[in-house]
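Here is an idea for our session: we take a single protein and study its fold together. To get us started, please write out a protein record for me. Once you have written the record down, we can walk along the chain together.
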Amino acid sequence: MLNFNSKEALFEEDDSEKEATPPGVQRAIMYESSLKPPTPVIQKVYFDFDKNQKLEQVEYLTRIFLVQSEIEAVPWKLGSEKKKILDYICMGATVTQDDQEIVAWFSPEIPVSLGPSVFGGLPGLILAVERNGETAYVATSVNLTPSAEESMVKPNKGSKVSQEEFEAIQKEKEKEQKENTQEENFHR
C-alpha cells in the first residue's frame, strides 16, 4: 500500500491481501532459503520529500533496522513499449541494479514520481515492477483521494543505521554464514 501527499509518502505491505502460506510450503521455502545468503526484507519505506530522505524499516536475520539514506535518482531508460494496468496506459522504463533487470511500468496520467517499495523517480506513478521478467509488484487499485496525515506514520521500530552501516552488517553476516557452511562441510 502506497500513501502519499506533497511532503511525504509511506509504502508498506498490505497484510489484508496476504493469504496464509501452507505449512508444507513454509518448510520448503525455509529449506531453500537456508541454502542462500540471508536477504533483507523491506517492511516499510518512508519518504520525506522536504529533507530528500528515505527511511526503510528492514528485517534482517530476525532483527529490525531503520536504514536512513538520501532519496537517490535512478538512471531509468525510458522504453517505447506500453501496456494497460487497471484503467491507465503505462510506459515502460528499465534499469539494472545488483545484476537484476528492473522494469517499471508507470502512468504519466498520474503525475506523481513514486512507486512501490524503493522504486520511484519516473514522470508518473509506477503501477507495476518486474525483476528479471517476473512480477514483483502490481497495483490492484488506485485511490487518488488525499491520504490523511495519520496514515503516514514514520517507522520508528528498529536500530537506526545509515545505508553504509547496514551494508557492512550484511557483508559481515554473509561472511560468517559462508565460513559456517564451509566448517559444516569440512566436518561431514
Notes: The first strand starts at residue 2 and ends at 4. The two ends are 47 Å apart (CA to CA).
